[in-house]
Amino acid sequence: MRGTTILVMGATGTVGGAVAAELAGGEARVRGATRDPARARGTAVPVGEWVPFDLERPETFGSALAGVDRVFLVARPGDEDPLRVAAPLLSEMERRGIRRVVNLTALGVERREDVALREVELEVERGGFEWTHLRPNWFMQVFIAGPLLAGLRRGVLAVPAADARISYVDARDVAAVAAAALTEEGHEGAAYSLTGGESLDHTEVAARLSAAGREIEYRALSEAEARSAVLAAGLDGRRAERLMGFYRLVREGHSAPVLPDVEEVLGRPPIPFDRFVRDHAECWSRGAVQPSSRASS
């Protein structure tokens, strides 16, 4: 690994930042890709170098990829058409002789080849790379950011999940698997479905989160209620419909299975949900700052 340079896309994000942390202290040089290197340098993400990079600007690809041997690829999973921006990047990576690609995708995309992230997977496979796909379930970290966090601080977990279960996975486990695939041999051509070690319905999730010190109630929304809520929170219509589609899959049971891949790769069980709650208890405890209070301060 000495002399190897790894480009981490999404290095200021939930998973990319954790990947950089996993790689820190190793023999590889870690390069963080970001639209705003100056701002990224002010974060605690441990990368050796920040480079300007924007999937919408192919002119940034060359300098970001110069001297790179391996790439952690995040092809904008929230997009309707991530292949549109991923394909030119993959072509440039192939032209430069980059061999190893660890690709962040999503649980279950292999079931339908017309799913956007599956199209990215297939493009990666066609590129002749030593590839590894990471297909995580919903992240536990959805509870510490965005609209769900705002609701939890009011004592409510409101999602259109009915009584369905999700085997939530900690993003730190996803990052640890990514780091293994980037630095170890034997992961080439593998697709890992990454889940937590237990499957919880949202009444159980609310009870577990309540252990942080704030009583939280699960409120099962209808799809119409959920759509109205996310639109009111500022999500655009197309992304709102994508989110509703994801929750339909949840209600159909697609996010419930507990799979062994995390433990098989890491040699340890996945991080338990209860540990995630302990590690982030300050987010929901009674002393946590309410979003409205922060905005007015």
Put the structure in a nutshell.
Helix content is 39%, strand content 16%. The longest helix has 15 residues, at 237-251.
Please describe what this structure looks like:
By secondary structure, the chain is an alpha/beta fold. 39% of the residues lie in helices and 16% in strands. It contains 13 helices and 11 strands.
Secondary-structure topology with pairs:
Elements: E1 5-8, H1 14-23, E2 29-34, H2 37-40, E3 49-52, H3 61-65, E4 70-74, H4 82-95, E5 100-104, H5 116-126, E6 130-136, H6 146-152, E7 156-159, E8 165-166, H7 171-183, E9 190-194, E10 200-201, H8 202-210, E11 217-220, H9 223-232, H10 237-251, H11 261-266, H12 273-279, H13 291-296
Parallel strand pairs: 1-2, 1-4, 2-3, 4-5, 5-6, 6-9, 7-11
Antiparallel strand pairs: 8-10
Helix pairs in contact: 1-7, 4-5, 9-10
Low-confidence parts lasting 5 or more residues at pLDDT below 50?
Answer: 290-297
The chain-level structural class is alpha/beta
Percent of sequence in beta strands: 15-25%
Q: List the strand order in the largest sheet.
A: 3-2-1-4-5-6-9
Give the distance, in angstroms, between the N- and C-terminal Cα atoms: 48 Å
Shape: globular
Radius of gyration: 19 Å
| Secondary-structure element series | EHEHEHEHEHEHEEHEEHEHHHHH
What percent of residues adopt helix (DSSP H or I)? 25-40%
- Please give the number of β-strands: 11
Keywords for this structure?
two-stranded parallel sheet, 11 strands, 7-stranded parallel sheet, disordered C terminus, 297 residues, alpha/beta
